[in-house]
Amino acid sequence: MTLDKSSYVAKDKLRVKIETQRERVVGFVHVLYRHRASDLLNDESRFIPVTEAVITPLGAEGPANEVPFLAINKDHVVTLFEIEARA
Question: What is the pLDDT of residues 62-87, one digit of tens each?
């Protein structure tokens, strides 16, 4: 299978921390070139896609869970912010 580069859209990979009422998620979001992580909260999609996600429960003891992909419903997001410079 060949990749049609004419439909490729340049994106920045941003490391973020997202908190819901129950979990803390640290991972990467992919945004359009020169956009911010906060722009994900204002787009039309109901979910925020996160790659290389590490999920840690809040307020309870428990091991972190690592998953290659996670979709977080925006209705559950309490905070979202970048935690490192752009990759």
Answer: 889 999 999 999 999 999 999 976 54
